[in-house]
Design brief:
By secondary structure, the chain is mainly beta. It has one domain. The chain is 6% helix and 42% strand. Strands 1, 2, 3, 6, 7, 8 and 9 form a 7-stranded antiparallel beta sheet that branches. A two-stranded antiparallel sheet has the order 4-5. A hairpin with a 4-residue loop joins β4 and β5. The chain is globular and about 75 Å long. The two termini are 14 Å apart. The model has no long low-confidence stretch (mean pLDDT 94).
């Protein structure tokens, strides 16, 4: 396996995994199970980090100090293969039921009193056999809602936007891991 350097070009999409957050982030190998794939994605995934700053300065511009007052991180992706269980991960008020006799899965969405307040581990894996894999992990919820558009000539892709919350007592919003050469 190669190594990631400042000259490495990252090309391609990856896999999106979503699972309930129960207080600890498990090892990557536990997260990256087929059963945790949210669905195959279209349009890749994006992570954004946005700090807000406050600057204090004197009237004459001789002294100035800037501090970060707020941070926000979001992971977005379009999920192309999905079902009611996927929608449940995207909707805090969703309730999924199955009737095996009728062969029917149903999701009911809505009702503020149905908010489960569940946080999820959202994990993106970009696999690169040459330069090494990249992993992005956040803890959060879909905060953008979703739209299901059914068109005669286009697949229905569910766009998700997960807003990160701190995943540890240091305030970590994004965990980015890249594979590098091992020391021998």
């Amino acid at each position: 396996m190669g190594k990631r350097t400042k000259e490495t070009i990252t090309l391609g999409s990856g896999k999106l995994f979503i699972l309930k957050f129960t207080g600890e982030i498990p090892e990557d190998s536990e997260i990256e199970q087929e059963s945790n794939i949210a669905g195959y994605i279209q349009g890749g995934a994006s992570i954004s980090y946005s700090p807000e700053h406050y600057t204090a300065e004197d009237d004459l511009g001789y002294v100035k100090k800037t501090i970060i007052t707020k941070e926000e991180a979001k992971l977005t992706s379009g999920i192309m293969t999905w079902n009611a269980d996927t929608l449940k991960q995207l909707c805090a008020t969703g309730r999924v039921s199955e009737d095996k006799q009728k062969g029917l899965r149903t999701i009911k969405i809505g009702g503020l009193h149905n908010d489960d307040n569940q946080d999820y581990i959202v994990h993106f894996l970009h696999e690169d056999k040459i330069d090494g894999n990249v992993r992005l992990t956040i803890i959060g919820k879909n905060t953008a809602g979703f739209t299901l558009a059914f068109a005669k000539d286009k697949e229905t892709v569910v766009d998700a936007e997960f807003t990160a919350k701190p995943s540890d007592n240091e305030g970590t919003l994004i965990i980015y891991k890249e594979e590098i050469e091992k020391e021998l």
